[in-house]
Amino acid sequence: VKAAEGDLKALTALLDAEERGGVYTLRYDADWRRLPDGADAVYELRAVVDIDENNMLQADISVTDREGIIYTLRVLRYLGARSGGII
């Protein structure tokens, strides 16, 4: 999202991922090699990305296998923030 500078259309292009209703889906085989959209995957990474009017990013990321969710992560970040600055 940082590389896309908050532009969700640019994010879709950078990820080269299927996007439906704000959900980005990336598919992988058993060796974690990227698969094309619609392929029968062993693992799926799904990211729900939202950027509000105050430039606040919220992303919910999950990794699933065929049996269910194996990892989840929630990211909240102000996109105008700079690392190493004074708070």
Keywords:
87 residues, 6-stranded antiparallel beta sheet
Model description:
By secondary structure, the protein is mostly beta strands. The protein has a domain at 1-45. The chain has 1 helix and 6 strands. Strands 1, 2, 3, 4, 5 and 6 form a 6-stranded antiparallel sheet that branches. The two termini are 22 Å apart. The relative contact order is 0.17. The mean pLDDT is 78.
Uncertain stretches: none
Rounded to an integer, what's the Rg over CA atoms?
15 Å
Number of strands: 6
Classify the helix fraction into a percent range.
Answer: under 10%
Question: What's the multimeric state?
Answer: single chain
Judged by helices, strands and strand pairing, the structural class is mainly beta
Order of helices and strands: HEEEEEE
Query: Helical region count?
Result: 1
3D shape: globular
Give the termini separation.
22 Å
Residue-averaged pLDDT, rounded? 78
Could you describe the largest sheet, including whether it forms a barrel?
6 strands, antiparallel
DSSP strand content? over 45%
